[in-house]
Amino acid sequence: MTERVARFHAHGGPEVIQWEEVDLPAPGAGEVRFRTTAAGLNFIDTYYRKGLYPSPLPSGLGVEGAGVVEAIGPGVTGVSVGDRVCNFGPNLGAYATARNIAADALFHIPDGISDEVAAAILLKGCTTEFLVERCAKVEPGMPVLVHAAAGGVGLLLVQWLKHVGAVVIGTVGSDDKIPLARAAGADHVIQSRREDTAKLVREITNGAGVRVTFDGIGMKMWDTSLKSTGKRGLLISYGNAGGPVNGIGLATLAAHGSLFCTRPTLYHYYDTPEDRAAGSGRLFDLVAKGVLNPNIGQRYALFDVAQAHADLEARRTTGATVLLP
Fold first, then answer.
1. Would you call 235 helix, strand, or coil by DSSP?
2. What are the tens digits of pLDDT across the range 186-210?
3. CA 11 to chain centre
4. What global pTM score does this model have?
5. 3-state class of 161 per DSSP?
C-alpha cells in the first residue's frame, strides 16, 4: 500500500521537510495500521527538524496525531479495526497519511471528542496535566506565572490552573493575544515585549513573587523567570521556543531565593500504563466537562506542514494547530 510521509534528510528550516511515497507493509507483531485523520503541530517538532533534539537521518517528523485503526498485527489486544485512536509519540512520524505504530502507544478517543480535538489537545493536554498536577502540584490560592499564555500549551495551562484555584498571571507577546489569555481565565495579563514582566509580577504579588513559574520559552525569558519566582519557589523550564537554557550556574538559584528548578519531560511522567491511563483520563474528563477548550486557532492541509512550521516559529499562530489530510 502506497502512502505519503514527511521526512527530512538534513537539519534546517521548514524547507528541509520533504514528502515521499513509501510502500507501507502489513503491521507487524504488536502493531496496527493507523490512518491519519488529523495531526497536531507542536514546538517539539521544530526541535527535531532543527537538530536541537537528536534523531537519526533521514527522519520522520511529528509526534501527535489522531486517526482510525485499519489493520492489526499479530498479538495485538485492546485495539480493534475501526477504533478511533490518538498518539503522542515518542516515535516520530505523525506527519503521514498512514503508518504502522505500536498498539501500546495508542490512546482511545472517547465518544463526544472529535479527531481534530484529540489531535489538538493530546500532547499539549497531557503536558499540562503532568506540569500542574504532578510536577508543580499546584494548590488553590497559589500565585503562578505562565509564559506564552496564548500559545497551545499556555492556554491549556491557564484553564487547568484556574480549575484548581490558582491565581494566574500570564505573559503574551502581542496586544492581540491579551484577550485570548483573559478569556482562558488569566487573572492578570502582561505584554512582555513592552512591559517589565518581573516588576509587574512583584507588584501583583505584593513583592513576594509567584510560587511556580511555567516557562516554555527558555533562554529568552530565563532572567525574567528567575526574577519573578518567589523565595523557595519552583521554576519549571519545559520548552525552548526562545532558545535552550544553558551556561547557568546553580548559585544563580540561590541568589534568587533558594529556588527549585526542573526541566521535565512528558514521557518520564507517562512511562507506565498506569500513568498513561490516569493522566489521559484526567485530560479527557476535563475536555468532556468543558473545563478545557483546545482552542484550535488554525488549520492547515497536512501537505502544507512546512508553512505551518514557519508560522509557528514566527509566532503567527494562536492556540493549537491541526494538520488535515
1. strand
2. 999 999 999 999 999 999 999 999 9
3. 21
4. 0.90
5. helix
